[in-house]
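Our collaborator T.R. sent over the components below with a one-line note: 'Predict the complex.' Nothing else. No constraints on interfaces, no templates requested, no preferences about which chain binds where. So this is a plain run: every listed entity goes in together, and whatever single assembly comes back becomes the starting point for the next discussion.
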Amino acid sequence: MSTSNTVSDRAQKIVDEFSLFSDWMNRYQYLIEMGDDIPLLPEDMKSEEYYVHGCQSDVWIRVEYDEDEQVLHFQGDSNAKITKGLAALIIRVVDEQPPEAVAEASFDFLDDIGLHEHLSSQRNNGLEAMIDQMKKRAQAFRN
Amino acid sequence: MPATTQPTSDTTSFDVEAFRAQFPALQQEVYEDTPLVYLDNAATSQKPDAVIERAERYYRRENSNVHRGVHRLSQDATEAYESARKSIARFINAPAPEQVIYTKGTTEGLNLVANTFGQKRVGAGDEILLTEMEHHSNIVPWQMLAEQVGAEIRVLPVTDRGVLQMDRLAEYLTEDTALVAVTHVSNTLGTINPVKDLIDAAHAVDVPVVVDGAQSAPHLPVDVQALDADFFVFSGHKMFGPTGIGILYGKREHLEAMPPYQGGGDMIDRVSFDETTYDAPPHKFEAGTPHIEGAIGLGAAAEFIMDLEWSAVQAHEDDVLAYATEQVRAIDGIRLIGTAPEKTSVLSFVFEDIHPYDAGTFLDRLGIAVRTGHHCTQPLLKRYGLPGTIRASFAAYNTRADANRLAEGLHRTREMLG
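Returned assembly:
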């Protein structure tokens, strides 16, 4: 298990899943469905502390350090479905990973899920802001 | 002009297909094989061959600095640059080309007025009157000025439909009002404001008025003398012209009394280390080498528009907006934002249960370019309690077919995301 659960393994798994869909509509549908599985941030925790600035929609991402396991736990939410799907996607890659792995994680796989023409080039979806915030907070938990 | 529902066939004196064919960027497909439907004209319009070719000709044949050289190319460039100023003066019916100042765009025009005229005109305890539907660029420069001089910002509110509450003007236009700044057409709602009435009311109490014409210049015939505007600012890129060029029109007595905005070359009369005297308007406000091909391109855009039979173009624009409004209004779960009786070119709306960003992203993938968000009018969106809207904004080259694609895209958006 430990050998197949790295950030890049999980990223590859997501790329494989998206490759099953032949058209963009289905890929979007899948991204949106992914949002339903996000480790959901409770309503009462949607505070400025976890708010991600730089998106057209509201996005929150919370990072928590599990000292026993020495891994990070993530929760998130957004009021836009596509953004929520994106948050779920990147959380899936970094959740329960050690801070070092999150801080150094590559998200280049996003170019390979067939939505790249949209997602990576747009400032408004806040993808970059989400990744920045996750990495910065992960960095803070590094020894 | 109010939107009408007359059929397109009644506007035969404007051949929209022939017009549209002059805009190369509209003839493309986006995302594999999806033809582009461009409905983000309030942000920027596409450019016709006439403008593209004019700017290119400048670089190929005339490129040279203006107002300086004795040589032939410099004379040609200067001639083209000043001739463009005359075209633009005719476009807005300015009394003289000297009252037409080149700027980077509407934003710079407003900052220029705030920092020169505003600095002299507005003092401690004075009020600057804005409206609730202003673009940030017609809010922030005045806030900065108010902070510097100790003045206060007052805001004329809008109704639920997006109409200025003119019946409450007396509450807001007071003996402390030093200046009024108002948009001619709302970029978020499309409302055409009764700017002439506002100007008359302000002038009755000797208050000057700055008009933000960014959204009106591309859609309405503008006559700065008939309006009696003290200042009228607009951008080239929203009216088929190049980016990075805009116009500040001002009344002669204001322009002559105003201090310069920026110092540098091309704006001086004589310079010594003891004293510098400034050139007359417009050059007083045009320090440094200007955006020469932008100005020439904007002149070409003004000529391009003046060559059209404008009443026919307007009838066509009104028809497409009215048609699109009907199509979009009929979609379940959509609410229109901005239903003023006097509107042009802008259709803003929200889905009750779909975030504008999701809808905009999905529409984009269907080849439909709209804008989502607050459109740089956060106070207005706050008044409507919205995080943003979906805004389809039209130009003369848009058609009922574009409106159909939009409506079809919104139906699919609802199926997918609703």
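Summary for T.R.: The longest helix of chain B spans residues 72-91.
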